[in-house]
User: Fold these one by one.
Assistant:
Number 1:
Amino acid sequence: MKIAIIGGGPAGLMAAEAASAAGAQVDVYDSMASVGRKFLLAGKGGLNLTHSEPPENFLAHYGTRGAQLAPLLASFGPVALRVWARGLGIDTFVGSSGRVFPINLKAAPLLRAWLRRLRQARVQFHVRHRWIGWDERGALSLATSQGIQTAQADAVVLALGGGSWPNLGSDATWVPLLGERGLCIAPLQPANCGFDVGWSEHFRTKFSGTPVKSVAVIVRNDAGAESRCPGEFVITETGVEGGVIYTVSATLRNEIQAKGVALLHLDLTPDREIQRVVYDLSRPRGTRTMATHLERRVGIEGVKAGLLREVVSKEDFADPVRLAAAIKSLPLRLIAPRPLEEAISTAGGVPFEALNTRLMVRSLPGVFCAGEMLDWEAPTGGYLLTACFATGYAAGIGAVEWLNKGGTSEAVSRLG
Ligand SMILES: Cc1cc2nc3c(=O)[nH]c(=O)nc-3n(C[C@H](O)[C@H](O)[C@H](O)COP(=O)(O)OP(=O)(O)OC[C@H]3O[C@@H](n4cnc5c(N)ncnc54)[C@H](O)[C@@H]3O)c2cc1C
């Protein structure tokens, strides 16, 4: 039984491992000169493999896609992932936030050990092989430096990634290829992304690259429910990006899509009640400027003071009550998400409705999909990689099961 995996990211490699362990002969094809490039990049800032919270909390991070991912995460979820990493000689630890990391925080040792084990299991790797579709006989067409080659496989797992950081391989060129086959792909969109604000020249020059720490962001979702997330972010040339912005980025992106603009509110002093801020600002300031008063009494200076100056009118800045209100709920008008290429991950992709429970495309028997190319999204926190591993595992096992049951359209319906 021969299974081709196209895409050597975490989802594809997990599909390769699962299929190989279940007895298949596995070939992995990737367009780049080496596999796992985005995975390696993810390890640069500390590889957040998964999260240690209870399953029901974990699942909630996938929003409406939680229902489809639940059975897959039950088969290969956060606990299984940690056991699997330990099997590769990589112990993990739970950070203070509940996030799970490899002991040395890096991706490279894990990837090296994983590739060694896959090669020992006789998984064959074919790098610089770009999948460009199927030929007229149904064989896989692959663009290589020696020209177009074809490969036959009894089943295929596509694990081609989303569209962010295309220089690392996932460039979304698969979208039209599957579109031509009649698949209706949900438009790819940036997820866990930054946003444009359109700073004044003065603010941009002075503060671009500056972190804004110990704040809370307040957003309202489509249903009007308010959520408040503490954290930090960074001022960019054009707007804002980073941790706490990524957490609320799906809501903000959807709001911009619906209304053309999204409103984000910043609490610049999350540990101080508004009454206290009013009281502090209302104390006599003598000959001190309001800026000095603000710094001495409320501890607001630097970039936080700059943000107030950027957004608040001169009159409001001089009024303790109105200034306090702005400090506790400073409105930032976001005009556009940053482009998909810059995002951490991708929303949209192959909809679950087009797949059976083993992630086989219903209209393309023998073709399975896994990883970020599927239509789900989640915040950072280990949820992205965990779902990639879980869907890769399900697709790898699913392909073998399908072939074991005869690999026919009837087998499709038997698999559900
Ligand atoms: C800066 C950054 C940091 C991140 N940090 C984390 C983190 O700490 N924790 C976390 O959970 N997630 C993190 N992520 C997200 C995570 O890396 C991705 O969700 C994950 O790599 C997606 O896995 P995948 O296998 O679906 O796709 P990818 O990893 O994108 O792999 C897809 C593969 O398919 C290949 N390919 C694409 N098209 C073709 C083609 N036509 N023919 C052949 N091969 C093709 C590509 O070359 C690539 O190797 C981070 C992402 C970024 C950008």
Number 2:
Amino acid sequence: MLTVKPIPAFQDNYIWLLQQDNQDRVVVVDPGDAKPVIAWLEQQDLTLDTILVTHHHQDHTGGLRELIERYSPEVYGPANDAISGIRHHVGEGDECRVLGRRFEVHAVPGHTLDHIAFYAPGTPGLLFAGDTLFSGGCGRLFEGTPAQMRESLTKLDALPDDTLVFAAHEYTLANLAFAAAAEPDNAARDAYRAECQTARDLDRPTLPTTLGRERHINPFLRIDEPSLLTTLRQQGPADNSLEAFTTLRAWKDRF
Ligand SMILES: [Zn+2]
């Protein structure tokens, strides 16, 4: 069985660590900082087999050099020369085999142009979404257009309900505060928000979430909901899905 654990880094990043059964060769996703990863590996007597990278931002790649020097892992990531240390450049439609499990690569531009997501099909499937899909929200558009981000989210939204979504940041409570403003009348979201508040009060992660849940609570996956559209029209144009998405994302930026 593949277990996934969060290694907290910086203010609110999670570096996800994957381990098959009790094997001592493990995987990390988006190691922005080498220190907490090395501390974890040393403490558990593990070694690093593979690194997966979703995009070029420093808080996802800053630990690469030190981890590569120390463990010589396989490194899969976007075909972006700005990231040094990627051994296997992967993009839409590619696959990689990690810890005996098949991972599909999806191109999900929007937050950055090089952003990819890793999805391991299974029961449940595991989605490493980086800064594209968060619980209750989506990534800020630093490089891509709203149309690109919308298409990327639509792609992820096609995965099964039980898919576990491992996002790279603990942004859930802030996202749900915005979601409550965007779509005030959503009982499932209110219940989830209370659950997340309890988790955070106990210093527990709110992640992973599931795609099934996100479809009920995440406004960025609910752009065609009539009540959401009513609120959005007070913020900007929302005559079609893309306009509504663009208005929603811009509103979140200034919220
Ligand atoms: Zn980022």
